[in-house]
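Sharing a chain and its predicted structure for anyone who wants a worked example. Both blocks are below, sequence first, tokens second.
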Amino acid sequence: MTSGSIAGIVDEKATLGQVLRRLRKDRKLKQEDVSKYLGVERVTCSAYETDRVIPPPDKLYKLAEFYGISIELLASKTLTKHSDVIENKRVKSNEADLKSAEMMYYYTRLDDTQKRIIFDLIRELYGK
């Protein structure tokens, strides 16, 4: 497509979706224009621009080509998104580990009768 200045879209905090949206809007294009070029549905373009879906490598290449920018710019935004997702999962995993450890702490201090009651309650809640 057209080469243009990428000033303003290289904000380190901008997500891939924000960059894609800015590129499209700066060129006064509609999502339909981009989706047609990529060979995807408009909703897929929308998902790319709202960071609900990360475009596969072949689509990233086509997007870079379409907007006349380097693939490295888009790829770096993809890596940032993956890093954020991984970090978010790590935080949630740590929170779950802490809750599990706390539950085990209290459970080990129960007598056998109390442990049996808790076990039966969990099985009942679980539906088995």
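Comments welcome. The helical segments are 16-26, 31-38, 42-49, 57-67, 71-108, 112-126.
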